[in-house]
Amino acid sequence: MLITPEEIDEKRFKTTRLKEGYDQDDVDTFLDRVQVDYAFLRQTVARLEEDNRVLRRGSEAPTSVMNAVKPEAPSAVAEKRLEVATEAAQRIEDDAQGRASKMLADAQAEADDIIREAGAKAAKLIEDAAKAEGEMKSRAQAQASAIVSEARTREGEMRNRVDDLSRQVTSLEGEKAAYKRWLKGLLSKMEDETRE
Q1: Could you tell me what percentage of the chain is helix, strand and coil, using 3-state DSSP and rounding each to the nearest 5?
Q2: What whole-number distance in Å separates Cα of residue 151 and Cα of residue 159?
Q3: What is the mean pLDDT of the chain?
Q4: Which of 50, 52, 123, 129 is the most buried (most CB within 10 A)?
């Protein structure tokens, strides 16, 4: 059974889950069916045209042959039917080609949109990664600066403590020397008292 213009008009393709658009196998199967039907129509039109030529040639045969065998002249109805069938086949073919071209253009536009969208997403990912890298770098630099600043502060505190300890040691050494002198003086005094 030939595909009808209504079937072409009402045909809806299944969408695929992987990406937006028509299921390629569904479209291919439908177009294969359309191709077979139109090939059949073209063959039918060609056969009818050949039959028409044969009938016309038969009507132009010599009179003696025509008198012997009187072929029926091609009827105006048959010619009209052939003409209508040819025009219908041409309209259907043109319509199918127009629809196929539109489907191809739509598919190309959709593919372009997908590529454009993928490019935009990739650019956004790269931008986000660069921004994250910049933020991490800034945080690392801030942490490094804080650590260096804290180390310098501690270094200053340690130097101050060392200076304090040095002063205390100097002071203790002075006190130790004074204590030694005092002890020596005391020992000397005790020795003197013991001698008397």
Answers
A1: 85, 0, 15
A2: 12
A3: 80
A4: 52
